[in-house]
Amino acid sequence: MIGLVLAAGAGRRLRPYTDTLPKALVPVGPEGDEESLTVLDLTLGNFARVGLTEVAVVVGYRKEAVYARKEALEAKYGVTLTLIDNDKAEEWNNAYSLWCAREVLKKGVILANGDTVHPVSVEQTLLAARGNGQKIILALDTVKQLADEEMKVVVADGKGVQKITKLMDPAEATGEYIGVTLIEAEAAEELADALRTTFERDPDLYYEDGYQELVNRGFTVDVAPIGDVQWVEIDNHDDLAKGRTIACQY
Fold this sequence. Notes:
alpha/beta; two-stranded antiparallel ribbon
């Protein structure tokens, strides 16, 4: 199993940082510190702590910034990085971005979005949940109060995910998918096919819509509740401020 990070997004709501950097390289340490850790740093650190020594990173927008830091990141975290180019990063949504990593999925991965600040306990929870035939396990926050923007999930006992979408009444949801998934190698081909179907239907769809496509086909997508932990998806400057508060705890 290896690590996989989706880091192709532009994150325009985080300008001026993202005028020159992809979202995954926006600093989440003290403001003004040019040597600050980034979301990518934190994620690579998590992967290393659970024993993953190989990581693939899907890059697109401002990808040259990731290429420039590749060797330093490898040395710092003791991992080997493979960068995968997404040629439509500024045109299409992330269903296509994950599909670009379809060959990597065949190794089995822990997937992390490049804008999610979270503790290593999330990866540990996913790894601990393996072993009962699950092929895809989503990290689920069942504690947070949900609103309209969250990627909401409905789970049925013994049947896994029934629905995953932002377009849902928060009161109906079991919890929020936080952007971290364990994907076993056995799921790679079916997931890749579902992702292709998804972005061919509408290139603006999310990879989570690919998960829904799998569910609609009868594939069981499981979840692992992460407990009461601090994490944030960084979409805007308010999120970034929260991310800085959280990052300094880990």
